[in-house]
Amino acid sequence: MDAPIIRLRGIGKDYVIGDEAVSVLRGIDLDIWRGDYVAIIGASGSGKSTLMNLIGCLDHPTRGSYAYDGQDVSGLDNDALAKLRREHFGFIFQRYQLLGALSAVGNVEIPAIYAGTEASRRQPRAEELLTRLGLGNRLHNRPSQLSGGQQQRVSVARALMNGGEVILADEPTGALDSVSGTELLHLFDDLHRRGHTIVVITHDPDVAARASRIIQIRDGAILSDSRPGPPAPSAAALDRPTVERAGPGAFVGRLGEAARMAVKALAAHRLRSFLTMLGIIIGIASVVSVVALGKGSQEKVLSGISALGTNTITIRPGTGFGDRMASRIRTLVVADAVALAAQPFTASVSPEISTQKSATLGAITTSVSLRGVSAGYFDVGGFTLREGMLIDQAMIDARAQVAVLDAEAYKAFFPQGGSVLGKTILIGKVPLRIIGRVEATSSGFGPTQVRVFTPFTTASVRITGSNTINSIAVKVADTVTMADAEGQISALIEQRHGKKDFFLQNADTIRNTITQTTQTMTILVAAIALISLVVGGIGVMNIMLVSVTERTAEIGVRVAVGARRSDIVAQFLIEAVLICLLGGLLGVALALAAGQVFNSFQTAMKLSFSAPVAALAFLCSSLIGVSFGFLPARAAAKLDPVEALARD
Ligand code: ADP
Ligand code: MG
């Protein structure tokens, strides 16, 4: 019992109020020895709590020196001070300051969690402490289910969790009825016998009378000290349960605990958590659906194209897809098709003429897309015959006035259904006998068209009156490679036209074009959806900031029992990430459900979901959680624990 455990020399504390500095503590010299039981008394506002917060390393003095167990405290950084608090001090507050979301055991465990103690060791200890304090049948009750006296005993257990070498109690009986107050004082007597050093602030002379030493404070200075020297030695040996665990294992363990506490915090406010998530849910659902829609329509179109076959080359006027001048180019003619047909590398040639015409059947007149086609057209284009027959070579040679309707044309001209055969359709003034009806196997790209097919010779000679054609599809013979055929076709047509006013397409180039356009569109729309996700993130940040303000006292308690700044940051960051991840999960589920409904109601478009998109959604939402949770988490970590605890 030689050196004091707490040694204060010339301690002063100033507060700046307005532009005036007020000295709350002036030149305090104080030694406290191991096993002391000190009562600090004094009028309200005399500086007792300020002194206690300095002793507990929650606050820094303006002047003077403080040595704890021979070690100068002023040189310690935040983490070292947190370590000092959780290893050596146990705080007991007038208003208990328990965390409402946790059970009694959960509250008692907190200091050990920050010390890195494994659950298997800290849980039995928390239960044992509570049982020792007479709360064996209240282990799993929340603070709101406990009386004031019981809550204060839970907070004593929390103070003892890591050893509680020095117990600092600020008006511990202030909120208790006299019976509970007396019980608590018996408890303090017992702790003192067991070797704990106790510093208690009180108004109450009865409380002070139990202490072995009374210090009176007035206006920030010590007025009297009933026993300035060391106490009589005692033989009690303090139990020192916790050994701090450090290293990566302890760090991961603390993160796990932070995650568990975050889950509890979210569960304690279910509706609010859900509403906070809503922005993320909607954002993720829209991003996922848009990408799925893009992918679905792309797949659909591509499957239509693969029906084209890989050995077909199409010649069109212009410089490429989307060339606006292409329709003015009139150089691609029937004679080109005839010349191509004569080449050794062609298996077959099918020109197509496409023109918008007014068509009449009976009482119905409507605009149709008239297609002058060859015999192979229906096979290559992926059509199935529903009624009658298709256009054949004989009809082409004879420029026969025949027509085949597609499904849209059938709908338009035969609203009541029935057979198309034998009817005559007027294209402009040219009558065509309907010989059949087809249906496209794939819906393809773009708006649906009302299509009427006729031999290209008929279209050229009898309807358009010009031999200009819109495209020529060449099926390449097996004997030559596609590259060879492309070279030869290009050379032939260029020679015939005198310039290159056309372009070639094969299944690959079409596929690439479509893939590119749908990808661009998808990225564009997904970017817009992403904005809603960011808005959702801002919502999360907003609520988290509010929650930091609302939970100031909780943060103060956590810091008082030894949380590092990084622990507080981790807790709030994990909460934000959890909200976003959960929101992401619900968003993906919502998108999947909506996709099911969408796909089952109609067939023209399709949603196609993929695992990478879902993974991306989760990555996105956790990223948003981290970036928008950072600000609130930092705000929480920066809170001054003294002010946080005072605000209740
Ligand atoms: P006690 O616990 O003895 O009632 P305190 O230590 O709480 O007294 O406060 C002592 C004085 O310091 C009071 O006059 C109080 O108004 C002032 N004080 C305490 N904390 C602050 C603060 N954060 N800012 C300004 N003044 C403060
Ligand atoms: Mg006070």
From TrEMBL:
GO cellular component: membrane protein complex; plasma membrane
Gene Ontology molecular function, alphabetical: ATP binding; ATP hydrolysis activity; transmembrane transporter activity
GO biological process per UniProt: response to antibiotic
Transmembrane segments: 274-294, 521-548, 568-593, 613-631
Its membrane topology: Multi-pass membrane protein
Main location class: membrane
Entry protein name: Pyoverdine export ATP-binding/permease protein PvdT
Domain ABC transporter: 6-244
Family, as annotated: Belongs to the ABC transporter superfamily. Macrolide exporter (TC 3.A.1.122) family.
Pfam families (UniProt xref): ABC_tran, FtsX, MacB_PCD
Tagged with keyword Nucleotide-binding: yes
Compartment annotation: Cell inner membrane
Organism: Rhodobacter capsulatus (strain ATCC BAA-309 / NBRC 16581 / SB1003)
Keywords, comma-separated and alphabetical: Antibiotic resistance, ATP-binding, Cell inner membrane, Cell membrane, Hydrolase, Membrane, Nucleotide-binding, Translocase, Transmembrane, Transmembrane helix, Transport
